Amino acid sequence: MSDCTVVCEGLRKVFAGADGRPFDAVHDLTFSLKRGTISALVGPDGAGKTTLMRMVSGLLKPDGGSLEVLGTDVAADPQAVQNRISYMPQRFGLYEDLSVQENLDLYADLHGVPQEVRAERFRRMLEMTDMARFTARAAGNLSGGMKQKLGLACTLVRVPDLLLLDEPSVGVDPLSRRDLWEIIEQLIASDGLSVLVSTAYMDEAGRCDDVLVMDHGRLLAQDRPQAITARAAGLTYRVTPEPGTPARDLQARLIDAPERVVDAVPRGGAVRFIRQSDCPADGMADLLQGRPVEPRGEELEDAFMLLLRQHDAPKPNAPRDAAIPEIRLAAKEDAAGEAVIHVRDLVRRFGDFTAVANTSFDVRRGEIFGLLGPNGAGKTTTFRMLCGLLPATSGTLEVAGVNLRRARSEARRKIGYVAQKFSLYANLTVRENLEFFGGAYGLRGTVLKQRVHAILDQFGLDGAAASGALPHGYKQRLAMAAGLVHAPEILFLDEPTSGIDPLARRAFWRTITSLSQSGVTVIVTTHFMEEAEYCDRIAIQDAGRMLALGTPRQVREQAGGESVDDMNQAFIAIVEQGRVKGRSAA
Amino acid sequence: MSDARNTSADDSGFTTRLVALVRKETRQMLRDRSNLMVGLLLPVVLILLFGYGLSFDVRDAPVALVIQDRSETVSELVSGLRGSPYLDPVDVQTMEEASRMLVDGKVDAIVQIPGDFASRQVKGGAQVQLVLNGVDSTTAQTLEAYVQGAIATAMARQADRGGGMATGTVTLMTRTWFNEEGNSRWYLVPGLVVLIMTLVGAFLSSLLIAREWERGTLEALFVTPVRPLELVLAKLAPYIIIGLIDLAMCIIAAVVLFAVPIRGSLVAIVLVSFLYLLVSLLVGLLISGVTRNQFAASQVALLASFMPALMLSGFVFDLRNIPLAVRIVAEILPATHFMGVIKTLFLAGTDWGLVARNSAILLGYIVVLTFLTRRTLRKRLG
């Protein structure tokens, strides 16, 4: 018996593409995973991570090459493999009408876990997931993070020879994400598990023994995280923007010069960027405009971006490189600084449950305002009230100078809304969708035609393409275009970047920066704390209460000195402080 | 902790897994109120609706009487019509008025007795005109039979009194077997068992696999030692119980509410009904597994099983009178085979040959459908 859990050679999987032509979802993959290690699979959306996971678990049949899992040819005998592995799909289907305990029992029975082992195992899983109190609760009534933990517990009712986790932390807030990884790491340590986990978070990949970087179905690199990180050595810098200007403006300038800059992101009030290796260190003076630059230590994320950009380079027309939309909307430039959203003592109750308690804030024209919080914090409720989708229980709410409690439809014409689950018509073309949404907002005739034409152009969309067949990133772009077709003053985005990869997220935020520069006010909710850095101001909510409000810097300072650079840490600290305070008050 | 490792590498967990899955399906069924409503309440509604609401019998049908002969013979004849519980005669003076009433839908038929009826009767060849509203042909036929019957009875009575003078006349002695009263309820209620088994079976089970695809629960379930057949069996189990409860309700309603006789063996009725219930549940599961979408599955189930069972199984229409092509379709339907045997068992008695033959056909369906449904749960995505 070999000391490898997964061995594949020339592995291939062909799917029919959105345009009907076949394409390789997984192309000529050759690698092996060592027993007793934890391997991370990272790569952008559409890299082939889930396809690979499904082939390893025997749910998809490879179209070429060989794939051995635990010494068995999966394609020939998937059941033999499935008897020995545990697999947590991206959307772990809990039975929502069954209780926590019933879900656990079901999976324990299916895996044939003996009764005598079971009690101890359940006790441990429930303790680790902090769910012992909720065993009788229906799985459907758990929060998103809890569901994910229960999914993990169900996957791990027994100790498998190989554990497959497909993006276990996608769409989960930082607190739940930290808990989830603590559970995984504890189990790895105590049970000596072999794990293959796919993830969109580089900090998670950095915790693993082995990292596989995939893109467009190909394997770009496989190595220890340190070795992969080293590829970015000497290319990473930090630059401080001119005081009083948002870091994202400088970041936008840098990221718009891809021949010299691999990547740039705002972080801790400054901009981190990666230099192209063939560009001399002093060759970007015009971009930096004399702002102070200092080298910084390279991180896994830097190396990852480097690998993706290098791989993408020969294909200038690859989807996510398509021209970053240059957006100019007819927004009023004169009145910058005036509050367009005015919220005072906003309350929303559902029965005895207070979803949003006494919330007050203002959003100024042209601002990017971020609404952050763990699952169930009241973000979505606040958001829906702001968009006029849900009436407030009490309080004042003015959007674009219109009181939402009195003139909701008038306010709605001035706002654009992009829901988390885009409500697009899959069997209409891109153009038809835009025309429909434009029509719904009262645009007609030549005005509508012009707007649709302009927005197709701005977002680099093909009007004739079928909406349902678009890749995820493009669907999102279309959703945003649909929200902007009537040239609103304010754009609401609910979790726009949940479930999309870093490159697509960069492109998304570049669009947002352009929008903001053209005077559109943007309100956005997000799970990715580092994205708070793109915002002018953010609000952190937990359990319906507003815990912090201010610029990212102010919020980091409120969280405490030592974690100034890391928004993720700041967020966790603020929520935990808030919970302690809430408990002592109660 | 390695003691929990590899406890299920063989097939020995079949029973454990099946019990776990059955428990899961049962809980899901019990917690889904809308499913229970369809499973238990809808049959009650159908029994009452079809049992009381649907009938081909005509009672108190308004009939216009245009009597142009005032002789005694005629009034005797007319009294026969007036005495019928099925007819409600109205006297009308002229044929024009009667026609108008027929057109307006105030009466269903016109009986015209011409002025020379009595005189012609003596000579032989007396005529009565019956005008029927043919829009509703079933009612028209029934009425025709009633009017003819009433007139024939009246004439026979006269002939009797005349001292059996009617030599040379052939008298037809009619006797209806099995449904002596010609009561359409007797005819419909046994068929109701077929409809309810079809609806409950196919409709409820059509949601089961599709729901798991939609909610993404199958992906995790597939990567366990579970086998496709176990999934199929577990999904059938709780709904068999629902189906049997419905069957009991149907039989009790048939006997208690509608006084339909059970002339055949009750055991045979339960046996064929059970087989048909399985067929019906499997049809639903198969549709569910193929469509993978709850909405589509329930639509298809309704159109592909309930509607044909209503129209083509012989529930209402005699299958021998339909065109060959449609008849072939009808013969393919499992409902047709169940319908034939269940009506016989209720009204005629036990024909074990028929029971055996039709049970064998249903069993064949069960085997084929189980095989096909299992294939839709092959552990593969995409």
TrEMBL record, chain A:
Transmembrane segments: none annotated. PROSITE patterns: ABC_TRANSPORTER_1, ABC_TRANSPORTER_2. The keyword Nucleotide-binding applies. Keywords: ATP-binding, Nucleotide-binding. InterPro entries: AAA+_ATPase, ABC_transporter-like_ATP-bd, ABC_transporter-like_CS, P-loop_NTPase. One of its GO terms (molecular function) is ATP binding. The keyword Secreted does not apply. Residues 6-241, 341-568 form the ABC transporter domain. It comes from the Bacteria. PANTHER family: ABC TRANSPORTER G FAMILY MEMBER 20 ISOFORM X1, ATP-BINDING CASSETTE, SUB-FAMILY H, MEMBER 1. This is ATP-binding cassette domain-containing protein. It comes from Novosphingobium clariflavum.
Automatic annotation (TrEMBL), chain B:
It comes from the Bacteria. Keywords: Cell membrane, Membrane, Transmembrane, Transmembrane helix, Transport. It is a multi-pass membrane protein. Pfam families: ABC2_membrane_3. The chain crosses the membrane at residues 36-54, 186-209, 236-259, 266-290, 296-317, 354-372. Signal peptide: none annotated. Residues 128-380 form the ABC transmembrane type-2 domain. Its main location: membrane. It is found in: Cell membrane. The keyword rRNA-binding does not apply. PROSITE patterns: ABC_TM2 (PS51012). The keyword Isomerase does not apply. Belongs to the ABC-2 integral membrane protein family. This is ABC transporter permease.
